[in-house]
Target: Ubiquinol-cytochrome c chaperone domain-containing protein
Amino acid sequence: MFRNRIVNQVIRQYRGQKYVDYARVTILSPYYAKIIKKPQSTIAAEESYVKKFMKAVGWMDKERTRLKLTGYFLYECVPERVCYQEWFDILELPDTFASWFIITELHVWLILVRYMAEDVTVAGEKKKMVKGDGHFVRNCVIEALWADVANRIKLLEGANIVVARKQVTELSEQFQAALVGYDEGLEDDKVLASAVWRRFYSLSVDTKAEHVEKIVHFIRHQMSALDQIPSKDLKWQPQITWLSIHDH
Model:
């Protein structure tokens, strides 16, 4: 809880900035500065009980803190940089909270796919999933998403706390189902199109095929663009440029 409070304070303070040096997060908060200024042990780092303690206590782990901030800033690049009105107009989607969430959800999934790819190691002809930094950043992105959703629902006109909680629970279930559907379509455009049709248009028979096609093309092109980001740039300074749905 203490760690989350510190991170949230940092994000609120620096949300308006266009660039953050992820590699030097310790300069952002007096809490971290105090930790860095503490006397260093002269015992070898590999054997130091201080190092073991820092690993056990998450909020003192500087690398984890940087990764957590990376996850939060990665999420914020979605609602801040995606042109939602363009999606509403071109794909004939209603300008509602539900539509906003579905569009945000798709962009978040694209981020998750790219980061989870960092945790895949190839051994012979089989792929073995290894939980690493990508998995941790993934969880932080999702955590940031739900924090944002909870805040937005509270701001809706006539919002009721009990109803809002129920809505968040329903969205969570839909989110998990959507991720599974999109994942299944990673290797097959037809399966992906079905997932898009189901999520965006609820399998309506009145859906225009070109709208589903546009979204599928957007996904393929955006995934290709994300794959161009070198692994070394994913941790601290990920630069994500969202493509326009207008061009697909």
Summary: Residues 13-51 have pLDDT under 50 and may be disordered.
